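User: I've been trying to design a sequence by hand for this structure and keep getting stuck. Would you show me what you'd pick, starting by listing the structure so we're on the same page?

Assistant: Good idea, let's start from the same input. This is the structure you sent:
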């Protein structure tokens, strides 16, 4: 999985390809744990690996590069006993059909153990190595969050918790917490999210009581804020313009009976996930694949009372869940994403009824994708007014509100409520 991400694939793609080869849940969980930890610390491990290698490895030895990073991760970041880590890593050379690399892997890892203190000291003076985030992202975080950037990077490097959303149509939160206790799973209520539950230990969804019967979904507490910011009422026409995989669409439907929801997404394959999720939860919506910036192709001309624009973004607020972002995203992606976000806002606004509400959301912490985008839109639109969120969580960014990653162990999310005059 790690080699695949080093080669440019997303971690999701790599997981889909490799996890089915694992034998059983324990092996799968261990493989995920190692891959996530290695990618989480990759900027640091890569730096240390380069210090220990006499010559860089050839491109066709990307599998070995990945193996070295996994070995270093076990020695430096995870509490794997050194002998076990070195022995198991060296053994993998055979499986890779590169027995010649055994001496190289063994030598490098043992050298790392010998020079551990010196290497870590050196690392502390290099920001990329120390904070384990790429230089371009550190620069943006320092600019946008001069007082909080270290909190943000620290949260990005932590293992995320598993959070749940109870389907209030089928079960109350208190009752679900009881079901969890009876199943031997410790959990507590999430703040600001009336249906939110935080599991103290992650489990496979099949172990969650009533998952198959639609009692509950996996969703971070920050993402659960969206549905309650939309001020939904029965009979309203609602558009979820970037809906897949459908977490927020489902929550909108669970929150308010009788809304007429259209869930739109550009990617038909991802829309299938929305269909499966709604079916499991016993919810109904119109599903449509289409480009939100080309409404002439899919809009029937009847205005929406509410629009949720959960825009495609850098994911800089959810790096702890998607550590591959550190490798795959580049500085140049941000202006490109900002342009897409601006276009989405501009093209969706005419679809909103007068008096209607559009909620702009991203799982980013970058001002360029958040408050700056919304500010530019407000200046150009003329009939749009910023109305919040008025909330006790997060930080007011005027316009909008930012939840930083790690706040009550939630993801980083930005929300802005825009009312049409
Ligand atoms: C942040 S994700 C949405 C997550 C979703 N709201 C949820 O809570 O499960 C962004 C989604 O926007 C979709 N997307 C990107 N550009 C789009 C466009 N121009 N029109 C419609 N959907 C788009 C992507 O396919 C992706 O599924």
């Amino acid at each position: 999985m790690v080699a695949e991400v080093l080669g440019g694939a997303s971690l999701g793609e790599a997981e889909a390809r490799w996890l089915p080869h694992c034998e059983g849940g324990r092996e799968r969980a261990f493989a995920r744990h190692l891959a996530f930890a290695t990618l989480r610390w990759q900027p640091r491990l890569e730096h240390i690996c380069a210090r220990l290698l006499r010559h860089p490895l050839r491109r066709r030895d990307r599998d070995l590069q990945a193996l070295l990073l996994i070995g270093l991760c076990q020695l430096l970041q995870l509490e794997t006993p050194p002998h076990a880590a070195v022995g198991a890593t060296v053994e993998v050379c055979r499986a890779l059909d590169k027995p010649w690399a055994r001496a190289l892997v063994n030598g490098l890892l043992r050298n790392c153990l010998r020079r551990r203190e010196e290497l870590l000291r050196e690392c502390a003076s290099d920001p990329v190595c120390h904070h384990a985030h790429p230089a371009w992202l550190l620069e943006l975080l320092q600019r946008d969050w001069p007082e909080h950037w270290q909190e943000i990077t620290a949260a990005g490097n932590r293992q995320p918790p598993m959070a749940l959303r109870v389907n209030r149509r089928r079960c109350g939160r208190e009752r679900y917490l009881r079901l969890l206790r009876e199943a031997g799973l410790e959990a507590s209520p999430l703040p600001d999210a009336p249906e939110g539950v935080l599991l103290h230990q992650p489990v496979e969804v099949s172990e969650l009581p009533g998952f198959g019967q639609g009692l509950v979904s996996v969703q971070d507490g920050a993402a659960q804020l969206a549905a309650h910011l939309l001020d939904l009422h029965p009979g309203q026409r609602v558009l979820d313009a970037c809906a897949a995989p459908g977490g927020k669409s489902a929550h909108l439907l669970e929150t308010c009976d009788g809304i007429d929801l259209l869930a739109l997404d550009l990617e038909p394959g991802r829309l299938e996930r929305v269909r499966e999720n709604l079916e499991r939860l016993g919810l109904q919506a119109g599903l449509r694949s289409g480009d939100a910036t080309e409404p002439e192709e899919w809009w029937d001309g009847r205005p929406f009372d509410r629009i949720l624009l959960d825009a495609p973004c850098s994911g800089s607020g959810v790096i702890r869940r998607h550590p591959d972002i550190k490798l795959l995203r580049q500085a140049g992606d941000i202006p490109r994403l900002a342009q897409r976000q601006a276009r989405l806002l501009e093209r969706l606004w005419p679809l909103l009824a007068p008096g209607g509400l559009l909620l702009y959301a991203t799982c980013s912490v970058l001002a360029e994708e958040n408050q700056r985008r919304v500010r530019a839109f407000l200046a150009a639109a003329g009939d749009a007014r910023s109305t919040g969120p008025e909330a006790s969580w997060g930080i007011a960014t005027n316009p909008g509100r930012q939840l930083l990653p790690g706040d009550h162990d939630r993801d980083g999310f930005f929300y802005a409520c825009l009312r049409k005059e």
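That's my pick for every position. To get oriented when you compare it with your attempt: The domain at 2-132 is CATH 1.10.940.10 (N-utilizing Substance Protein B Homolog; Chain A). The chain has a mean pLDDT of 96.
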